[in-house]
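S.,

Sequence below, as promised.
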Amino acid sequence: MSLNSFGQFCNGYPQPAGQIDLRTCLQGGNPPSCSAGDYTLNEAFLAGADPCTTCEPGDVLMFDLILNFNVTTNSARPALTLFADVTTINPDGSTSTCAISSCIDPPDGQVQPPNSINMNFGAISYTCGTTLELSNILFVWVSASGNNSCPIIDCPTSKCSTVPGITVIKPPLQADAVATCDNGNTIDVDLTVMGGAEPYTYLWSNGATTQDLTGVLIGTYNVTVTDANNCTVTTSDGLTSCCEFTYSCPTFNPVPTIVECLADIPTAITLTETEFETLGNGDGDIGDDPCGVVEITAANSAGNDCNGTQVIRTYTITEYEDGDGNGVKDDPEVILNQET
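The prediction came back faster than expected:
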């Protein structure tokens, strides 16, 4: 049975010639015990040619998939095969899963048995900013007797090991900063760090050494992240403005409002923000951080007597670009937003 029959094979990951997916051996009525326990998986990580390889979100790079084991046997093993599913979790939460297999058949014919060992299971494609997880993991090995080498094609009896649950593959060191408006002229910058070796230290362009920035002045901020192996990665983000055009109209009760004559209807054609916010039930609001100058105007529909005429009063909120920065509307100035 080919590997593809168990799961879609991962693009760019070379399938060992003649290798079948021995995880199918675990699905029969008499599965192997996999009780030998010669190899215990500690962690999985990605490694590049440079020990301090870093990347930026969205970069697609090839890394070696390294698995670290505790080896409990004193017997050398000529071949060791990994079978696993790899799930990619994207920043938006979407996922994709494929299968990998790799057989280690070292030149000296022996997988040596130190207490702890890193084993390279070949190159794998990685998109920076995503999370990689291994699941449905099976390791199969062979004894030193006989002519045992890759590929391992026979169902194991006991010389195998399964790994329960999910093993997260540690990615290369990477960082991403996202700035958001805080209040008025201040912003927050949230820093997310993945990969490398914890703990991390941080040095921002404003001298801060915290992971995130809170309540700093509008601007752009750079940060250098250093991990426990002294590898570094830099990133930055910022905002040039925190302005926002927001408003809510006042409510009136009752509707319609009854007056005796047209003369009792307000006639003002311009209002201050305070006057607008005190209309009706006093629940109108103009945001505190507009991007320009706000002007509020009002107009009444036609009416000519006191005999049941319905008059509609319309309020218009216009935000103008304050090109000269003097805080008042000058002519001409560009309309940024307008709501009625």
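Residues 17 and 50 are 29 Å apart (CA to CA).

Coffee later?
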